[in-house]
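Handout, section 4.2: multi-component inputs.
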Amino acid sequence: MQAFTTLTALVAPLDRANVDTDAIIPKQFLKSIRRAGFGPYLFDEWRYLDRGEPEMDCSNRPLNKDFVLNQPQYQSAQILLTRENFGCGSSREHAPWALEDYGFRAIIAPSFADIFFNNCFKNGILPIVLPAETVDRLFKELVDGYQLTIDLQAQTIATPSGETIGFSVDENRRYRLLNGLDDIALTLQHADKIKAYEAERAKRAPWLFREA
Amino acid sequence: MPIRGIAYLLVRDGTPRVPYQRETNMAGKTLYDKLWDDHVVHTEDDGSCLIYIDRQLLHEVTSPQAFDGMRISGRKPWRVARNLAVADHNVPTSGRAQGIADPVSRLQVQTLENNCAEFGITEFDMADIRQGIVHVVGPEQGATLPGMTVVCGDSHTSTHGASAALAFGIGTSEVEHALATQTLVQKKAKNMLIKVNGKTGPGVTAKDIVLAIIGQIGTAGGTGYTIEFGGDAIRELSMEGRMTVCNMAIEAGARAGLIACDEKTIEFYRDRPYSPKGEDWNMAVRYWEKLHSDADAKFDKVIEFDAAAIKPQVSWGTSPEMVLPVDASIPDPTQEADPVKKQSIERALQYMGLQAGQKITDIKLDKVFIGSCTNSRIEDLRAAAAAIKGRKKAASVKQVLVVPGSGLIKQQAEAEGLDKIFIAADFEWREPGCSMCLAMNADRLEPGEHCASTSNRNFEGRQGYGGRTHLVSPAMAAAAAIAGHFVNVAEEA
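Output:
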């Protein structure tokens, strides 16, 4: 996994609440058995005027010019600013895969849905929760070329006006993201504890351990 | 900690005890606290825990990349028998003998079969009578049991909480993590109790209860919580009804929903294929009987509902919280003070092609879908069949799909003659799968079509590009198919 340390990047505003993972990456693209290549289909139904299908070449599809990611000033944006409950609905990790493949590395919102929030950390994307008033202020401040600098080590966001906004991430998640660590390898360092747990659990719940 | 030390903690009077438990206060525990404490393998300094996973369910959509990861790293499943796989999202619900027409879907289903064969995981394939929707199959087989931790790469894993199991949806990275380690790194959620007091009125089902709850607390109302559903109206529900309620906990933002174990739970699991047998059964039951919140348990939040005040529900918008009683009218965005909510209502009305003030009973339907992990169990099919009362679908309704949750439910329904009732009403009786709940197979809406659906999500495009979903109970869906528009099933009942 790609580590996340600091990021200075353009911000794209997606001014909608309750953006669900079906909207982030529609179901037909979930038929892929690969992990890469979802970026062109990110927000497919909002981004294009036609109906998207898996493996479609998106270079000649008709664009919805009103959609924020199609506006020239937000090309190359790596930070998404959005509203409450972002990523609700389906658990599909294809949603952070699509955001990451498109180029987003950080998402700022007043709140996220739990599963999506968790999935972001597995894919080098930093979801940042800020108070709704602060998010509202960032939306109002946002002008063409608006950039933010995010420092995960310091847990701060620097705005163009020189303001510093603090945020917080669980220590364990922050450590893994800062170092781009593989969760499974870290967990397997506790293999002895897992085995000890199984041994004592087998005594109190033997019916779970009758497998051949 | 040496194993002998742990064993000492456990056996004394034969009562299961919890090792690693840090809290020493004597306050009662919630059901969630009990399930959590029973599965903690290790606690990190920041409070995140390594949680043991008793059961993983796998399906074709969210598992291929996890198996790839296992292959790349050369890892083997930690406990292969704790995994059970079934293809459900992509499978056709008709013409199965011809296989899957869509090559992309076919490859995904074939990939699950290949992966299960390679890693030694039991899979119910399309020809197996046990095949069906993963969240229907788990309890039906006794593969998900009370007291278990259950995960699946699917947000509706919350369904299994109806059996007093801690069950939640995960992403594909976590599917791989659970495969490789039989654990997940988790942070404990807060405790919420939703009590539905009293008795529901005629025509009001589990689906109406949970839709009314979501309408009240919103799609983020349960974010960060595990919701336990309690109260007389919940106790009164069958296991099928309880699964419907817990299934939609995720639509209220909660990863997990829970309902305490009682006699109905225990009876439901008696003699299921994967249920414990003989002395194991007796021991399991003694443990399961403790799976309820203590009388003095502390919840971070308690919300109460009056069951008698809940009416049959119909969603009108593009989020499950956009739901109203069937006798209500479509909301007027100009009456909404909050600008973000106002914009959401306007956008939803535009997408749905509805007018503020329009009566819900005036919404005309093009298609009807009865199925999904929310409402495809035998009780749901019986309720839908009962609502038909010898009539036929309205001529204006193009298609009514009835998709049972599993091959065994299909068999049971046919034994009861329900299939004949549906077919006589010009409904289509299909093979089991997720079908038009998310339209990954050939069953889908066309742009602009309104559908009365017993599924769980009414997001834009969920049931097909441009499709317009109205979430309802099976009885409401069947009644709407007959009338061609929504009707107040409370008056008909």
